[in-house]
Design a protein that fits this description.
single-stranded DNA binding, ten-stranded mixed sheet, P-loop_NTPase, Rossmann fold, ATPase SWSAP1-like, 250 residues
């Protein structure tokens, strides 16, 4: 789902035109960043983007309700888009697994995009690599099932947000390396020097072999409004590329 996130970032945070995206299904994407790095805001922006494509609903899974809807520029919070986003709040790993396993029993239009926020909160209950692999495989299987229902050539996308930990945690590093095998496309979020009353991030999108790598500066104002601008590329600046390709935290 790198192209969905790319459209969000290229549009500067504004909702798209609402035209349907008929591209083939894209590889699942892992959204990575530390605490407070804007992962939830970008997931919500991707949900709004997909909701405006004229396809099926968007399924947004998170452990607890959002305290507030992240603000974006333009007419992003259109009621028709919001109505197509279905929030569900599995409170535990067991409930999340139960929800995913029962996906084949759900009726109505199949989701065009499946989002999971806070994967790390579910993995802390069973931090072993076997549990992480099982959950990742089940997420991919659920997206594949929805894709089959949506129809050939369209598919259901999958984006999962994971909070990265401090360097030096070998167990977490092993877990991340395993998850990257299931999610070939990744987007890393790294803190950038903030301006007055702003929280700034550097977003690096690695599309997993489809499309070119790209970077942006994402800025959040104190009121929560998000703006996005292209990252000023400098010769020899490869810090994010090296860290992301090696599986480490930017």
């Amino acid at each position: 789902m790198a192209e969905t996130l790319r459209r969000v970032l290229n549009s500067g945070g504004a909702a798209g035109s609402g035209e349907e995206n008929t591209a083939e299904a894209e590889p699942p994407l892992l959204l990575l960043g530390g605490h407070g790095s804007g992962k939830t805001a970008l997931l919500f922006a991707a949900a709004l983007e997909a909701a405006g494509e004229g396809r099926g609903p968007v399924l947004f899974l998170t452990r607890r309700p959002l305290q507030s809807l992240p603000r974006r520029i333009g007419a992003a919070l259109e009621p028709l888009r919001l109505q197509k986003i279905r929030f569900q709040y599995p409170p535990s790993t067991r409930e999340l697994l139960r929800l995913l396993c029962s996906a084949h029993e759900t009726r109505g239009p199949a989701p065009s995009l499946l989002l999971l926020d806070g994967l790390e909160e579910y993995l802390t209950e069973d931090p072993g690599s076997q549990e992480a692999a099982y959950l990742a495989a089940l997420l991919l299987d659920t997206a594949a099932h929805f894709s089959h229902r949506v129809g050939s050539g369209r598919g259901c996308g999958l984006i999962v947000a994971l909070q990265t930990q401090e360097e030096g945690d070998s167990a977490t590093a092993l877990q991340l390396a395993l998850l990257q095998r299931y999610f070939p496309a990744q987007c890393w979020l790294q803190p950038d020097a903030p301006g007055p009353g702003q929280h700034c991030l550097r977003a690096c999108l690695e599309p997993g072999g489809l499309g070119a790598r790209a970077e942006w500066r994402v800025t959040f104002r104190q009121d929560g409004e998000m703006t996005v601008t292209p990252w000023p590329t400098q010769a020899g600046d490869t810090s994010l590329h090296k860290s992301s390709s090696s599986g480490g935290q930017p």
